[in-house]
Amino acid sequence: MEDYNDLFRMRHTAQHVLAYAMEILFPGVKKAMGPATADGFYGDFELPEGVAVSLDDFQKIEDKMKEIINSGKDMIYQEVSLAEAKKLFQDNIYKLEWIQEIDARGEKISLYWIGDENVDLCAGPHVGNVKDVKAFKLLNIAGAYWRGDSKNKMLTRIYGTAYPSEKALKEYLHNREEAEKRDHRKLGPALDLIYFDNKSPGAPYWLPKGLIIYKELYNFWSYYHEDHGYLEYRGPLVNRKELFEISGHWDHYKEHMFILNQDKHNILVIKPMGCPNALVAFNLQTRSYQDLPYRLADVDMLYRHEDAGALAGLFRTYEFNQDDAHIFISEDQIESEYNNIIDIVEDFYNLFELQCSFQLSTRPDDFMGEVETWNRAEIILKDILTKRFGQDGFTIKEKDGAFYGPKLDIHMKDCLGREWQMGTIQLDFQLPGRFNSHYIDENGNRQTPILLHRVIYGAIGRFIAILIEHFSGKFPVWLSPVHAVIIPISDAYSAYADKIYQVLHDVEIRTATRGLRITKDYSSDRFQKRIRNAQVQYIPYMLIVGENEKNNNTVSVRTRDGQQLNNIPLENFIEILKNKIRSKSLEIKLDA
Ligand SMILES: [Zn+2]
Ligand SMILES: [Zn+2]
To answer: How far is the CA of 378 from the centre of ligand 1 (A)?
Structure first.
């Protein structure tokens, strides 16, 4: 934690240095606000009439910042009266607005000085001296409304970051560059996986190759859950609003719902979540305690309305499918069912070598239901997590549970160290009651079940976006849209290429498509060019055939990483490929 504070102080100080440099270089500039953030800092400025700042000015601004840092001035704290503060910032409407607010809250008005040269309204904390800003860089520039409100004036926001050493800064910049290169919004279309069209906002086209990845992930999920006692079903996409009145979503979630109201007396809603339909399906029969846990899974399409500005490739869309499940349990099944689900989470995330961690969110102030039930559930959940991961193996976020029950969120880290919130397992003491759900217990009495909502992938499209970036487009064999491409050295070997194509085509193996996914490249491109084409599509295996291969019924295999093995009997290669697919191995390397 101390580390984070030090970093925070340094970044906050770097922001003051930026503001000072801006005032020197662009006289008349007004600083509005500027905080430290999770990976740097930013400053918002109102530029003087006729002045524009662009990326081209960054060198100049950074040079000035360096000068200020090298001057070695102390960061000095000062408290002032309301009148003094108003006088000091009389030309800056933004600071005057802050000052009024601070005063209205009855708080002290404080300043931070860089030496005796530059002052800003600020509560700190800061490092002691500007020299403590060890390594920094300006990163980006964008427009931003004062206080994020589009009714206000558009300001200029400059982003930067600061680190305790040049080495740490370099590493951050490297990861950032790498993340940009891997951005699924570029890589997805470049690999013909997805396409976004501005006539279809908030929803992707799943192109044939992208849909293969989708289907592989879905099939794996579907078979796996079938093996683990889940029943898959599908509910209606469009429902009358009355269904969401029962569930409470109409009151609490309406602004995120797409509402169809051509017919005023029959308002229809595209569902934002599948819970109400699952409850209706559960209620169709009288369930007994012997039917529990009753696990109903679906990957139904959902629509959630977001601000258009919040849409971000596959990361945030209007339309998505999530791998949902609603599990009806009795109270004494909480522990075992949670353990079952955590097992599933670990199986899924290990498959992609994504590290996951767990965060428990407890009872919020506006909770519904009985305190005792909440307390019992929270004790059980803490106990499960402690047993599995040890005292320090998970985090607790107090009062951050949903109003209907505590939740366990699953976070994961990708290979660039970025953290994502993925799956969630939520206990719900409310919805079954609202829907009058019940089961008959051992003694013949009616009981209300507890409902568990859980997702593992989360939105499948978002999960694929993360995989595209995590693997940099180089998918493991089982997810690759093409497993192998056959490349004859010249036309003379097309007939042999056709023959092995047919053999591979007829191999019996269960995939999400009809079997092995093999293509041939007989194009008129030079041989080297055809190799290159396969490499830029990240096809795991290139099967190169010429005289030698034809005479011996073999293939020479080249991996997308450049490993080459000559003259492998075709049968052997088929076995290797089948194993890679069945084992879902991340490794494409061949054993010599
Ligand atoms: Zn400050
Ligand atoms: Zn649900």
So the answer is: 39
Alpha-carbon radius of gyration of the chain: 30
Q: What is the pLDDT of residue 576?
A: 95
Q: Which ligand is nearest to the CA of 13?
A: 1
Report DSSP letters for 308-364, one per residue.
GGG-BTTTB-SEEEEEEEEEEE-GGGHHHHHHHHHHHHHHHHHHTT-EEEEEEE---
Cis peptide upstream of residue 164 (ω within 30 degrees of 0): no
Average of pLDDT values for 491-498?
94
The residues assigned a catalytic role are 275, 304, 322, 324, 326, 407, 453
**Residue whose structure tokens are 């501005």:** 198
pLDDT of residue 1: 34
C-alpha dihedral (315, 316, 317, 319), degrees to nearest 10: 80
pLDDT tops 70 at residue 152: yes
Are 146 and 46 in the same domain?
yes
326 CA to centre of ligand 2 in angstroms: 6
Please tell me the distance between residue 275's alpha carbon and the centre of ligand 2 in angstroms.
4
How many structural domains are present in the chain? 3
Mean pLDDT, to the nearest integer, of 34-52? 92
CA–CA separation, 81 and 77 (whole Å): 14
Q: Is residue 255 part of a domain?
A: no
Distance 454 CA to ligand 2 centre (A): 7
Q: What's residue 592's pLDDT?
A: 66
Q: What is the pLDDT of residue 233?
A: 98
What pLDDT digit, counting tens, does each position of 529-557 carry?
Answer: 999 999 999 999 999 999 999 999 999 99
Q: Is residue 501 part of a domain?
A: yes
Residues 467 and 484 grouped into a single domain: no
Cα 143 to averaged position of ligand 1 atoms, centre (Å): 21
Are 192 and 336 in the same domain?
yes
In percent, the amount of the chain with pLDDT more than 90 equals: 82
Does the pLDDT value for residue 334 go beyond 60?
Answer: yes
The CATH code of the domain that includes 162 is 3.30.980.10
Task: Answer yes or no: do 442 and 489 share one domain.
Answer: no
* Residue 85: domain span: 2-173
Report yes or no on 574 lying in a domain: yes
Identify the domain boundary among 471, 495, 515: 471
Q: Whose structure tokens read 């002691």?
A: 128
pTM beyond 0.85, yes or no? no
Q: Which of 429, 456, 471 is the last residue of a domain?
A: 471
Q: How far is the CA of 149 from the centre of ligand 1 (A)?
A: 22
545 and 499, same domain (yes or no): yes
- Claim to verify: residue 227 and residue 373 sit in the same structural domain: yes
CATH code, domain with 577: 3.40.50.800
The model's pLDDT over 420-472, given as tens digits with 9 standing for 90+, comes to: 888 899 999 889 999 999 999 999 999 999 999 999 999 999 999 999 999 99
Do 168 and 202 sit in the same domain of this protein?
A: no
Q: Phi and psi at residue 75, in whole multiples of 5°? A: -95, 120
CA angle 577, 581, 586 (to 5 degrees): 100
Residue 32 lies in a domain: yes
**Are 359 and 389 contacting, i.e. CB atoms less than 8 angstroms apart?**
no
Residue 4: the pLDDT is 54
The whole-number average pLDDT for the span 369-397 is 90
Residues 312 and 455 in one domain: yes
* Ligand that comes closest to the CA of residue 10: 1
- Ligand in nearest proximity to the CA of 279: 2
* Ligand closest to the CA atom of residue 274: 2
